[in-house]
């Protein structure tokens, strides 16, 4: 296809504004081979013929444009983000971007020839430069592309208004790609929401257990000391999880245990002890009581030289069980707002993710291992329906009788040739693992191998038989045991214990002051809102609603001040996130009449009144949690004869 001089200039102008270097290069080099441009008498009548199958982009370009514009101007006028599959002739997007409320249009296109043709005909340079028009190549989308899109603003904030529209019927031919694209976007939105937190009860439990565990954490070795003393001691780490396939790998693991760093999940620890395979590290993640059972045992000399690492919010019974048998253990934090508020940098931080395998992978990276091997990381049910090895503490079936297990979710199997049954939480674990592997691959930090030889495929990890890989990589014994990890000096411990005590008491006072301020504002707004029923004049009622919205914004400004509410943000974070995601659905409602506008404002205020009540309850819950769980810290300070400093802190508050 030939373009005139002006069209070529326009294409180069568009191309220079495109903030996607990879796509820019593809379009520059691309030849147009199977589309024929068809121009009608009307400047809006731009069509393409697909010469491969003799179909057209549009049956009637102008009529289809009118229908789409009418729909979007009526139903989706206030949507900040819209998603389309197919670039089409681009005129729809040029028209929609005249609407100031549409901050971004995200266009997914498989046929890059279509984009190249249309960038010769329409000037999108300003929209491309400002990222109001985002064009993504379906053929080259990777994990990180989905994650970047779904986790950034405003795409994440409006994730619950997401839908994917075809720009024309022509694209129905790509049904499989569209379904895959939609599933990936929905999955990444869901994972991002999960990462922000969706359960205030869990968060509160975490805060309670953090405060209760603080004296234990501060008087045991810091995680950063471990990394400084032990990095670069081993090229290879083997991460041992407890999928059904673990049993078949135990003989090989035992043979090569002295030639690699062995990082075991807490659930694998009793199994390894039974087979006399000593791990170097045992990691525990969960905050629940049932996890403590993995340490309710006495393996005597076997435990010597094993480093047990659990999180700052582990269940107190887990700590009690670890202490009972004099195990060498430490508590390391995962980044949370309250931990950041306490400023305990030496004791963190563990990697993100929702499984022990995620933090084990992070530990291996932090120790500068060049090869990281997964075994037992099935993330899927075995053929007999089992979820764990037969020697697992809680049995080999997934906490229910075998006959009650239902299969309805599948994923690609190890080897890539068939499908296996899994469940949603395992998919979530796998997604975070794949994200970590992708990032390490990009940075060339290490090579990741999946030697599970069963279960689900983990994208980004190289699949190899475990024995074969051990034979190739593990030639020499390591110098074990690794150096002992030192605790902080007593003076430094005292300093951190007192600083933490001060911070917690300061947060208790903050909870009390802020909740009272919020309650006063809440009662004022609620009283004015209740009086609306006594007013019959719509305009007068609207004025009151507008005033209440201004008062609401004052409170929200304080709630959004991350620096000044850092100690409250962890308990409020999931609540704020879920509320804003739901509020987006009200924001995009397009009122047609004064009454519609009034009802939208009424709903907006009503939702905020309920929200402020929940915020108040959450802050009071944190206040109670801090007061009730500070006792172990107080006792530790008294044991160290630091009462006079405690009194100073109490009197200062």
Word description of this protein:
With 653 residues, this protein is an alpha/beta fold. It has three domains: 5-196, no CATH class; 214-473, sialyltransferase cstii, chain A; 490-652, no CATH class. The protein has 23 helices and 18 strands. The strands form four sheets. Strands 13-12-11-10-9-8-14-17-18 form a nine-stranded parallel β-sheet, with helices on both faces. Strand 11, helix 13 (316-324) and strand 12 form a beta-alpha-beta unit. The longest helix has 41 residues, at 490-530. The chain starts with a helix and ends with a helix.
CATH class of the largest domain: Alpha Beta
CATH topology call of the largest domain: sialyltransferase cstii, chain A
**What portion of the residues fall into strands of 2 or more residues?**
5-15%
Principal-axes shape call: flat
CATH architecture of the largest domain: Alpha-Beta Complex
Arrangement of strands in the largest sheet = 13-12-11-10-9-8-14-17-18
Helix content: 40-55%
Helices, by number, come to 23
The residue-averaged pLDDT reads: 94
Q: Any idea what the radius of gyration is?
A: 29 Å
- What count of domains describes the coordinates? 3
Contiguous uncertain segments of 5+ residues: 400-404
Number of E-type strands: 18
